[in-house]
Every structure is written in structure tokens, then in C-alpha cells.
């Protein structure tokens, strides 16, 4: 709720709670507002409540408590077919007994749009997803990627202001998925549609979204733009869940300005940026991104501090090297370095020194 | 594949040692095929003996009746042609020729043989099928055949004045050939008149067309009722969590595990005029004791009992079609702007059509041939064509007519199956 | 041909006993009637000869005979059939001929051929009883006392359902008698088309109130259950239900139709000799008289008449309950078997068509 106020928000969740069995809450006190035209992704592990949120927005589930507003109006009591929300399902849900064109025609027919207008809209929608010549096929005759495009076209053909997508790319292979990620974002931005996208794939979330809401345990753990999310995770769940992450555990020994001193369990003392820790003596989990760690001493910037490390594994990945180290007792400490002429290539067993800037090192909750 | 046909004409592909590829493949697969064939052989033989052969025999019997041409001694199995002399006369004289002395002389010779073989009843019965009252003429005449003297025409007329009835001679002429379509005519309430033209039988003897129509109507009605009752049940079964739906499924299947007779008689207990339903209605004061509803021994009884008994045959195919329908289809339709009714009508219902087709076909075919239930609870106007087939098999012993009726029923079902295939497509049939 | 009949017959005849030495299979009509035969014939026969008697029931034992004989798979040795069926089956060569000289003479020496009632001995059949189709009513359910066959067809005077045997035979005759045709003229009328129409027209008047029955055990049940207030029935069944089971059932003898039941031996019966022995034993003077103490059917031998005594309850005099008792014969019809042999198929066809209308 931080950066958008409720008045000009297009989609608002206001203290929404959801329980299926009356004993446990699947969604706990959800607050969220989205401006018009935003591409927002709900990211989280399965069971985190993100799909439930989507279903409440679509109207297939009712909120146990709280309000959901769309365009300023509460929609709790509006049935799904009157919400005017386009939706793309995980399994596409293309009607198997209808051709592609009939599938697209369906939302227009139920809105009572006349035939010639329908045909124009269908053609435009199919062209938009580059499926113009497939109108007479049945869904079963199409590949997964093609079905995905049709599902997208069908969700867009009646020009909804809001489109919901429930893990739409889950069934596609990697290459196709990447291509479709690009397609979807392009379309969403070109058409200026507000999109709520649900996925458990963080790459997808980072590459496609304006903002990402990270869900866990029925709550939004952090809602931010992808770069903020990656670079400035607000807690250790987000740090762990988004991207690769190295953690070192220890206790805060001192807080001085925008840095704090952490005594690691192995005895070393490092500096870190305190994020959601506040007092001395508190246990903390320090997070450092693998690409922010330097192995070449000469490249270390001033102010960096160093630690000893033993190389456990060195993997050559072409564009980058991936080195697994034992650092301060942590055997899963990974460093990613760019394949550059001056970059060191290590051998397992080698003792080296690594270093990083204290600002890149975030002290989070344990 | 593309290589072989690259230059426009297919080339013979060969294996590494130069044998034609097809031949090598055939040989490699022959053993497996032989084994597979041996495995299905018992079933094949079983079907041939218990299904195909009886149907072929039935079809044959419907056009073949040798009661008037061949006598088979039951003890020795010896077969003796009978009525050969009159057959010769029929062959020499065109249809419609008035029987003359020559004809009666030939008939007399045949009757002597009938008497010797004790076969007048058999020949008379065949004629009696098409002309009532002929049987006793045959037995009576045969008893006196040995004492008859020329002129035979007079001698025959002495025994019975009807011997010159043209109708009788028309029937005998038809019966003198074992192959005949007259049983099919009879099965369609038609007969031949004296001139051999096909005409309707007397109005108060017309029964089969009416019964076919009633069978069709009741079967359609029962099919529709099972659909009406079965669809919501199947939907409930398909959407409930498995542990509940399994329990419910047992209730649906329960009738399957109960003997047909038990089920039918329990309906009798329920429906009879002193039965549970009537007692309850009277007890609640909804019905006077004097005007209890007649729900049995009429069509209501047949329809109610058969709908109940055939219900599982509708529910099971529907269930098997509904279970895999992903709920997201309906959700998608709803999100696309359809009301729940439109979503059902346009999205859910069409996807269950193969199940409806299978269930309807199954129920209809079973209903068309149902026998025991209508016999027990149907009374007079709840009888179906199968009850008449049984009557001719067991009581009147006119097996040829029974076979003709059964063949017509079979043909009707095949036509229906064909129509189904044309309209819906048999590939869409989903039985479970 | 053999295969064909065999296949068709397996569908028809469920009963198939392996033939063993020293046993005989008798098919009868079930219920109280079969019981009377078991008591009067089967048990003493086994006791005397050591030949075991298997008792099998059918709605009409004439029905399975053709199928079994033509299939060459006969499991029945003796069947108890109606007159017209016996003649018809015999004419079709489906029955063994029975040598009447093997039948024992009456105790006073009268030969069997003279001791049996006229018509009781046929080429292929020996009668055992005289029975009749009568109308009966449940005195608790009917208002007033029906006294004539006409009352059966009068649903205004006696409202309620009527039970009738689902068969043209007896039904048509009763309709004519109810319509005022004297018993002696029934078959003359029925031989004409107008007569047949008249019978059906009379049936039409109560068609909606008829419950049709097929097995002989049904009418007493229908009457006792209150499903019908009056029914046609075999007189012995009503007697046994009324006297033996104290049901409030009454017989109206007016318009009764007398018929024989006869023993026949299907051609190719597995135990033909034992079957003949059984028939000779069962139709002797004492056995026939004995049967009458179990059910109210009249013996087919004149000499048995004097021996008929009390019902098996030890107190009911049987004589007045016999269909042949003089009082009961006042307006009685003797079934004309020749008519039915000839017209059975024809009239049943018309009857079925009428039913389906």
C-alpha cells in the first residue's frame, strides 16, 4: 500500500482474509493496491495463498473477511461473469468442442455482440498472437505454445481492463516459455492492460513484472519492483526465494549508523547493512548475492573486507564461472564470476581469499 | 519414407541382407501375431458359437419353415419330404388356379403319407399360422384318408366344406416352399389376400406394429427419464471428493448387485394398490381409500420399474465422461462473461454429450429388449414387443414368427446405431 | 436343424436333469396342485417301486415340451397338461403313445377303458383329474354376494378389480356366458366371427379393471391381498386357500368350465418305462381318489368317486367341493378341446391384439 493510495488504485485488496475450513487462514490480512496498467506478479511457493488471491479477484472464491475493489467498486457480491475480467488458466481451459474461432467468439457472443463485429475482433485478436490462420482448428490440434496464445487471445478479445493469469506458462518448455514471457509483457504494455500474473517461477516474475508481490504463509512478504526485490530483499525469505543467495549466520554485536557488526558463528566479524534487525545481541542471517563476491584481490574496491575460503568445486559455465566455497563454516557458499581475462580460475582444495563491500551484505532476520 | 518416394514412385526398401523390408517385418511380427490370435481364439469361438451362430439361425428361421415340406422323425432323425405331390401340382399350375380333381388326387396321396408319418398336425400347424382353423381340417382329413375314394374332390369336401376355400390354397401354395417372407408380413400386421397381394390384416388382429411403436415410445421415454434422473447424480458423483463419491457410487451400483427379479418384485410391493406407496398416500390423507392409484399392471409400472433398473447404465457412462472434465472450463466460461446457465449449456453440457450418447444408446437398446419386468408389472398395456416374442417362442410355438419379430427388432436397433454413428459418431461413444 | 433347435431350446428350457436309472421327472403346475400329486402319487409310488420322483413346476407344463423334444434334449418324463394341449402335442408327434391296456382295471374288474370318464383316455394321454375354471371372490372385500358369472362382469354392482387368466381359453367362454349365452351353446356361438366379437365386446366392458394372471397360484394371492375383489381361478386352488388356509374366499360355480388334466410322456423321455409305470400307478382307482383328499379336483375314474372321503384336515367332506358335484354342474361348460386345438393360435392372436389396444 506504500506507493499507491486507495483512491486512484484500480485493484484493491483491503484486509482480505480467506479460510476454507474455518480453522486455518490461507490468506492472512492481505492489503494490496494496483494502479491501472500495471503488470503485477504474485510470486510464491505452492500453498502460499497467491492462487487463492487470484481466484477471489476472479470471483470463484469469496473472501472470508475484507473487501476487494475493482475500479473503486467493491466486487465481493458481483458474480464472476459480471466482473469483466479476462483470465488465462494454467491448463489453458480452451473449450475442446469448439474451434479456435468459436472459443474466441464465445465471450463476444455472451455479450451480445453482433456477428460482423465479432469476426473483426476475433481476427484482430488472432493476428495479435500471430495465430491468424488457425481459426478453424480445434484446440487438440494445436501445440502447447499455440494453445497458450489462443488462451491469451481469448482472454483479451473482449477487451477487459484486467487480465488474470494463473501460471499460464507452467506447461511449456524452457525456450518457448521465455519467448512467451516476452510476448505477454509486450502485449500487456501495448494494450495498456492491467495484469495480475501468478507464478512460482522467480525468473518469470523478475523479467515480466512492473512489481512483484512475494507471497509466503498467506502474507505478502515484500511488494516491490524486480530490481529492488533482488537487490534489497526486506527479509530472509525474500532473499532466499529470489535469486541465488549466500547466507552466513551470526549475532549482531554492534550497530553504528547504516552499518552493523556481526559476529559469525565461526568467529569472524564482518560488517553488514542492517535491514530488519534492530538491536545488539539479536541473531541474524547475513545475505550476500553470489555475483557481489570478488575472488580477485586486485579487483576489490576500497572498504571491502575479506574472508578466507577453501574451494570445494569449480564449474565452468561459459559466460561465468561458478565456484563453491567453504566460507566461515558454510559449505554452500557460491561465487559467480564473469569470464574475464583477468579472472582467477581455481582448483578444488585451493585456499583463497574472497571479499565484498559491506553495503552488499544485508543483515536480515534469522 | 520421403527417400523412398522422393522420385515420385515408391521404391522397394530392403534390409541389410537384401530381403524386402516388408517381408522381413512381416516375418518378424508373424510369431507375435500368431500368439495373439491364439489368445483371442477361445473368445472368438465363444462369440461365434453363442452369439453369431444363434443370430444367423434366428434370421434363417424367420424366412424358413419346413413344417409343410419335410417331416423329421424325432426318434430316428429320419427326414422324409412331405406334400411333394401337391407341390408338383402347384409348380405346374399358376397361382390362383382353382383346385381341380388332379390337385385333390395329389393332396390325397400326400395325406396318406402324412397319416403314415403321423405328421398331419405338423403340416396343418404350418397352414394354421396363416389361416386359422386349418389344423383340424388336416388332422380330420388324415384320419379318413385311407378310406377315401375317387373322385377325391368330393371326398375332401365330404370331410370339410372348406377344402375349396381359395385362401386355404393360397396359404398351402406359399407353405409348399420352405422359404417365405410371410412371417415378416405377419410381424408387420400384413398378410396376403387370395390373389397374393399384400394387405393389412383385420383391424382387430393388428398388434405388432402397435407394439413396436409402443416399445419404441416407452424405450425413448425410459431413456429420457434415466437421463433426467441420472445427469444430476452423475454430476454430483463427478464433483464430490472421491471418498464421498465412492460411497454414493455404491448406492448407484447397488441395483446392479441385486437380482432383477428381486428388484422388480420390490417395485410390485411398493406400487400395488394395497402397496407401500398407496398406503402411505392414504395414510397421509392425500388419497381416499377408495381411489387408490393404479400404478402397477399398466404402463406406469413398466416405466417406473424399468427406469430404476436401467438407471445405472445411464449414470456410469455419464460419470466417466464428467469426472475428467476440468472445472476450469466452466470457470473460464464464467470469467469470459457467461452466466452459470450459459456456461452449463454451452460449455459443460456439450462435453458430456458422448456420455449421454453412450448412456442413451445403452439404456435404449436394453429397454427395447426388456422382457421380465414388463411381463411382471406391465399388465396388459405395459407389454413390450419382447413379451410377444416370448409368447410365440413359448406358448404359440410359432418360432418363425418369433424370429421374424426378433429380426425386425434387431434391424431397428442396427438402424438406430447407424443413425447414432452418422449423427454423433461412434468414436465419441464413451462407455466408461 | 439339430443345432438350431438345441440353441433355441437352451434359451427356453432351463431345466435339465441328467438322466439316471430309477428315477422319473414329473412336471406339473406348482403350488397346492403339485403338493396334492406329491402326496397322492409320488410318495406312494416311490415307496412301492423304489423309483425316485423329481417334481418340477411350470406355469403351463405343455410349454417346454416342444422345445425340449425338438432339441432332442428331453428332461421331463411325465407332464401334466390340459386337454387341448395334449391333443395338439400328440398330433404334432411330440408325445409317446400310451398303451391303455397297461392301465389297471377298477377294483370291481371293470377294464380301464370303461372305468375312465369318456374322453379321458387319448392316444398319447391319460387323464387324472377333472378340474374347472371358476370365478371366486374375497367375501371380505366384495360388497354383497356375487352369484352368477354375469356378476363378474358387473362392475357397477360389484366395484373392484377382476383377475383373469391371460389367455383366450376359458376367458372368451366366460364372457359369452356372462352375456347370456347358455353353456350348451357357447361353442356354437364362438365358432362364428360375430360370436368372437361378442365375447371381446363383453370383455371390453371390464377391460380397465382387469389384472391378468398367468400362474395358478396367483389368483388366491391376488384375492387375499385385496388386489382384486373377484378372479377366475382353478377351483382347487381356491378350495385349498379357503379350507386349508382359512382365507375368506368363495367360489361361484355358475359358469364354471370343466377340463381334464392329463398325463403325457414327451417323445424321447429319458425314463420312458418308469414314466409309464408312474402313469399306470398314479391313475389307478385308489390313487385318484387319494388325490381328491388333498385338493378339490374330481378323479377321472368313475370307480374313484365312491372312495373320495374327507379333506386332509380330517373333517371337510370333499364331495360338495368337487366341480363334478351335481349342484355345481347346473350351469357348467365342458371345455371343447377340438375347438381349442384348432383355434388356440388364432384366438390368442386376436386376444393379444385386443390386450395391446
TrEMBL record, chain A:
- Keywords from the named record: ATP-binding, Cell membrane, Membrane, Nucleotide-binding, Translocase, Transport
User: Catalysed reaction per UniProt?
Assistant: ATP + H2O + polyamine-[polyamine-binding protein]Side 1 = ADP + phosphate + polyamineSide 2 + [polyamine-binding protein]Side 1
Q: Which GO terms describe its molecular function?
A: ABC-type polyamine transporter activity; ATP binding; ATP hydrolysis activity
- Assembly and partners? The complex is composed of two ATP-binding proteins (PotA), two transmembrane proteins (PotB and PotC) and a solute-binding protein (PotD).
What function does this protein fulfil?
Part of the ABC transporter complex PotABCD involved in spermidine/putrescine import. Responsible for energy coupling to the transport system.
Q: Which NCBIfam families does its entry note?
A: potA
Protein name per its UniProtKB record = Spermidine/putrescine import ATP-binding protein PotA
- Supply the gene name: potA
Automatic annotation (TrEMBL), chain B:
**Topology relative to the membrane, per the entry?**
Multi-pass membrane protein
SUPFAM superfamilies associated with the record = MetI-like
Renumbered to this chain, the signal peptide range is none
The cross-references to InterPro entries, in alphabetical order and at most eight, read:
MetI-like (IPR000515), MetI-like_sf (IPR035906)
Record Pfam families: BPD_transp_1
Where located? Answer: Cell membrane
What GO cellular-component annotations does this UniProt entry give? plasma membrane
* Annotated keywords: Cell membrane, Membrane, Transmembrane, Transmembrane helix, Transport
Q: Which Gene3D superfamilies match?
A: MetI-like
Q: Which residues form the ABC transmembrane type-1 domain?
A: 212-420
Residues passing through the membrane, by range: 36-56, 215-238, 244-262, 300-321, 355-377, 397-420
Give the domain of life: Bacteria
Main location per the UniProt record: membrane
Could you give a single Gene Ontology term from the biological process aspect?
A: transmembrane transport
PANTHER family per record: ABC TRANSPORTER PERMEASE PROTEIN, INNER MEMBRANE ABC TRANSPORTER PERMEASE PROTEIN YDCU-RELATED-RELATED
Recorded family membership: Belongs to the binding-protein-dependent transport system permease family. CysTW subfamily.
Q: What is this protein called?
A: Putative spermidine/putrescine transport system permease protein
Give the originating organism: Lutimaribacter saemankumensis
Q: What is the lineage of its organism?
A: Bacteria, Pseudomonadati, Pseudomonadota, Alphaproteobacteria, Rhodobacterales
UniProtKB/TrEMBL annotation, chain C:
Among Gene3D superfamilies, the record links this protein to:
Periplasmic binding protein-like II
**This chain belongs to which protein, by name?**
Putative spermidine/putrescine transport system substrate-binding protein
Organism expressing this protein natively? Lutimaribacter saemankumensis
Pfam families in UniProt = SBP_bac_8
InterPro entries for the chain: SBP
Keywords assigned: Signal
UniProt xrefs under SUPFAM superfamilies: Periplasmic binding protein-like II
Point out the signal peptide segment.
1-21
Amino acid at each position: 500500500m506504500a506507493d499507491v493510495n486507495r483512491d486512484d488504485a484500480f485493484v484493491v485488496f483491503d484486509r482480505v482474509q480467506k479460510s476454507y475450513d474455518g480453522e486455518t487462514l490461507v490468506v492472512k490480512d492481505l492489503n494490496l493496491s494496483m494502479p491501472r496498467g500495471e503488470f503485477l506478479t504474485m510470486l510464491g511457493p505452492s500453498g502460499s495463498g497467491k492462487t487463492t488471491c487470484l481466484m477471489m479477484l476472479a470471483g470463484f472464491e469469496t473472501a472470508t473477511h475484507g473487501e476487494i475493489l475493482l475500479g473503486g467498486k467493491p466486487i465481493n457480491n458481483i458474480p464472476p461473469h459480471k466482473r469483466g475480467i479476462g483470465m488465462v488458466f494454467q491448463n489453458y481451459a480452451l473449450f475442446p468442442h469448439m474451434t479456435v474461432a468459436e472459443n474466441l467468439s464465445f465471450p463476444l457472443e455472451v455479450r451480445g455482440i453482433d456477428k460482423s463485429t465479432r469476426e473483426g475482433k476475433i481476427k484482430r485478436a488472432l493476428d495479435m498472437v500471430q495465430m491468424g490462420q488457425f481459426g478453424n482448428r480445434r484446440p487438440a490440434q494445436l501445440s502447447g505454445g499455440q494453445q497458450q496464445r489462443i488462451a491469451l487471445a481469448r482472454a483479451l478479445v473482449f477487451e477487459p481492463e484486467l487480465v488474470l493469469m494463473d501460471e499460464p506458462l507452467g506447461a511449456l518448455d524452457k525456450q518457448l516459455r521465455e519467448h512467451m514471457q516476452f510476448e505477454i509483457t509486450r502485449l500487456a504494455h501495448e494494450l495498456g492492460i492491467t495484469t495480475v500474473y501468478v507464478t512460482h517461477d522467480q525468473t518469470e516474475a523478475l523479467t515480466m513484472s512492473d512489481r512483484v508481490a512475494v507471497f509466503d504463509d498467506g502474507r505478502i512478504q515484500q511488494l516491490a519492483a524486480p530490481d529492488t526485490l533482488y537487490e534489497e530483499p526486506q527479509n530472509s525469505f525474500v532473499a532466499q526465494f529470489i535469486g541465488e543467495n549466500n547466507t552466513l549466520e551470526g549475532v549482531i554485536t554492534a550497530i553504528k549508523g547504516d552499518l552493523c557488526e556481526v559476529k559469525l558463528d565461526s568467529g569472524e566479524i564482518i560488517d553488514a547493512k542492517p535491514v530488519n534487525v534492530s538491536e545488539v545481541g539479536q541473531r541474524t542471517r547475513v545475505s550476500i548475492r553470489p555475483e557481489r563476491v570478488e575472488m580477485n584481490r586486485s579487483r576489490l574496491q576500497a572498504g571491502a573486507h575479506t574472508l578466507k575460503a577453501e574451494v570445494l568445486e569449480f564449474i565452468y559455465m561459459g559466460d561465468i564461472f561458478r565456484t563453491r566455497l567453504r566460507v566461515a563454516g558454510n559449505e554452500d557458499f557460491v561465487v559467480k564470476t564473469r569470464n574475464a581475462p583477468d579472472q582467477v580460475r581455481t582448483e578444488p582444495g585451493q585456499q583463497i581469499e574472497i571479499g565484498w563491500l559491506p553495503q552488499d551484505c544485508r543483515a536480515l532476520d534469522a | 519414407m520421403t527417400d523412398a518416394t522422393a522420385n515420385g514412385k515408391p521404391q522397394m526398401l530392403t534390409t541389410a541382407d537384401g530381403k524386402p523390408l516388408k517381408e522381413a517385418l512381416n516375418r518378424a511380427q508373424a510369431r507375435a501375431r500368431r500368439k495373439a490370435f491364439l489368445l483371442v481364439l477361445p473368445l472368438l469361438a465363444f462369440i461365434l458359437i453363442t452369439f453369431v451362430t444363434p443370430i444367423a439361425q434366428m434370421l434363417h428361421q424367420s424366412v424358413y419353415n419346413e413344417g409343410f415340406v419335410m417331416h423329421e422323425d424325432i426318434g430316428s432323425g429320419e427326414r422324409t419330404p412331405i406334400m411333394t405331390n401337391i407341390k408338383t401340382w402347384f409348380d405346374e399350375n399358376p397361382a390362383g388356379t382353382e383346385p381341380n380333381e388332379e390337385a385333390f388326387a395329389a393332396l390325397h396321396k400326400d395325406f396318406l403319407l402324412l397319416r403314415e408319418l403321423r405328421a398331419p398336425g405338423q403340416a396343418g400347424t404350418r397352414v394354421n399360422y396363416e389361416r386359422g382353423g386349418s389344423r383340424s381340417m388336416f388332422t380330420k382329413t388324415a384320419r379318413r384318408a385311407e378310406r377315401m375314394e375317387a373322385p377325391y374332390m368330393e371326398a375332401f369336401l365330404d370331410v370339410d366344406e372348406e377344402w375349396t376355400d381359395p385362401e386355404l390354397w393360397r396359404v398351402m401354395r406359399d407353405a409348399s416352399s420352405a422359404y417365405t417372407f410371410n412371417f415378416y408380413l405377419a410381424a408387420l400386421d400384413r398378410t396376403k389376400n387370395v390373389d397374393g397381394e399384400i394387405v393389412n390384416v383385420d383391424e382387430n388382429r393388428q398388434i405388432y406394429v402397435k407394439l413396436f411403436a409402443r416399445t419404441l415410445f416407452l424405450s425413448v421415454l425410459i431413456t429420457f427419464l434415466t437421463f433426467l434422473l441420472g445427469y444430476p447424480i452423475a454430476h454430483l458423483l463427478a464433483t464430490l471428493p472421491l471418498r464421498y463419491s465412492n460411497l454414493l457410487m455404491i448406492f448407484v451400483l447397488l441395483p446392479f448387485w441385486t437380482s432383477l427379479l428381486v428388484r422388480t418384485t420390490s417395485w410390485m410391493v411398493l406400487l400395488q394398490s394395497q402397496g407401500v406407496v398407496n398406503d402411505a398416500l392414504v395414510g397421509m390423507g392425500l388419497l381416499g381409500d377408495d381411489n387408490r392409484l393404479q400404478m402397477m399392471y399398466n404402463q406406469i409400472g413398466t416405466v417406473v420399474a424399468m427406469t430404476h433398473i436401467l438407471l445405472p447404465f445411464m449414470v456410469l457412462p455419464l460419470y466417466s465422461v464428467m469426472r475428467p472434465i476440468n472445472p476450469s472450463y466452466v470457470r473460464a466460461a464464467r470469467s469470459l462473461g457467461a452466466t452459470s446457465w450459459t456456461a452449463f449449456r454451452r460449455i459443460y453440457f456439450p462435453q458430456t454429450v458422448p456420455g449421454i450418447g453412450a448412456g442413451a444408446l445403452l439404456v435404449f437398446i436394453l429397454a427395447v429388449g426388456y422382457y421380465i419386468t414388463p411381463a411382471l408389472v406391465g399388465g396388459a398395456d405395459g407389454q413390450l414387443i419382447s413379451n410377444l416374442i416370448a409368447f410365440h417362442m413359448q406358448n404359440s410355438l410359432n418360432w418363425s414368427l418369433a424370429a421374424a419379430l426378433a429380426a425386425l427388432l434387431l434391424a431397428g436397433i442396427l438402424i438406430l446405431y447407424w443413425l447414432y454413428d452418422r449423427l454423433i459418431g461412434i468414436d465419441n461413444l464413451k462407455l466408461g | 436343424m439339430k443345432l438350431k433347435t438345441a440353441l433355441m431350446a437352451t434359451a427356453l428350457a432351463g431345466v435339465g436333469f441328467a438322466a439316471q436309472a430309477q428315477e422319473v421327472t414329473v412336471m406339473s403346475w406348482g403350488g397346492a396342485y403339485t403338493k396334492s400329486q406329491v402326496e397322492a402319487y409320488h410318495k406312494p409310488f416311490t415307496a412301492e417301486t423304489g423309483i425316485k420322483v423329481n417334481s418340477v413346476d411350470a406355469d403351463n407344463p405343455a410349454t417346454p415340451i416342444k422345445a425340449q423334444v425338438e432339441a432332442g434334449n428331453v428332461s421331463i418324463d411325465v407332464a401334466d397338461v390340459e386337454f387341448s394341449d395334449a391333443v395338439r402335442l400328440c398330433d404334432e408327434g411330440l408325445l409317446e403313445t400310451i398303451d391303455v391296456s397297461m392301465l389297471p382295471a377298477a377294483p370291481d374288474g371293470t377294464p380301464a377303458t370303461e372305468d375312465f370318464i369318456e374322453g379321458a383316455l387319448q392316444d398319447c394321454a391319460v387323464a387324472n383329474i377333472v378340474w374347472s375354471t371358476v370365478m371366486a371372490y374375497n367375501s371380505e372385500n366384495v360388497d354383497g354376494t356375487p352369484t352368477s358369472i354375469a356378476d363378474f362382469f358387473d362392475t357397477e354392482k360389484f366395484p373392484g378389480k377382476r383377475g383373469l387368466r391371460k389367455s383366450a381359453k376359458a376367458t372368451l367362454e366366460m364372457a359369452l356366458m356372462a352375456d347370456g349365452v347358455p353353456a350348451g351353446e357357447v361353442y356354437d356361438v364362438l365358432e362364428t366371427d360375430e360370436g368372437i366379437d361378442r365375447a371381446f365386446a363383453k370383455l371390453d366392458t371390464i377391460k380397465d379393471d382387469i389384472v391378468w394372471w398367468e400362474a395358478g397360484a396367483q389368483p388366491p394371492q391376488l384375492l387375499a391381498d385385496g388386489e382384486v375383489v373377484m378372479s377366475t381361478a382353478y377351483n382347487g386352488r381356491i378350495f385349498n386357500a379357503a379350507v386349508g388356509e382359512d382365507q375368506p374366499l368363495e367360489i361361484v360355480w355358475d359358469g364354471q368350465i370343466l377340463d381334464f388334466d392329463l398325463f403325457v410322456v414327451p417323445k424321447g423321455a429319458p425314463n420312458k418305462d418308469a414314466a409309464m409305470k408312474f402313469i399306470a400307478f398314479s391313475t389307478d382307482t385308489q390313487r385318484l381318489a387319494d388325490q381328491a383328499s388333498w385338493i378339490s379336483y374330481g378323479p377321472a375314474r368313475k370307480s374313484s368317486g365312491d372312495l373320495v372321503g374327507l379333506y386332509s384336515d380330517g373333517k371337510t367332506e370333499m364331495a360338495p367341493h368337487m366341480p363334478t358335484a351335481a349342484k355345481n354342474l347346473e350351469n357348467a361348460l365342458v371345455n371343447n378341446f377340438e375347438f381349442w386345438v384348432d383355434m388356440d393360435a388364432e384366438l390368442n392372436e386376436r386376444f393379444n391384439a385386443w390386450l395391446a389396444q
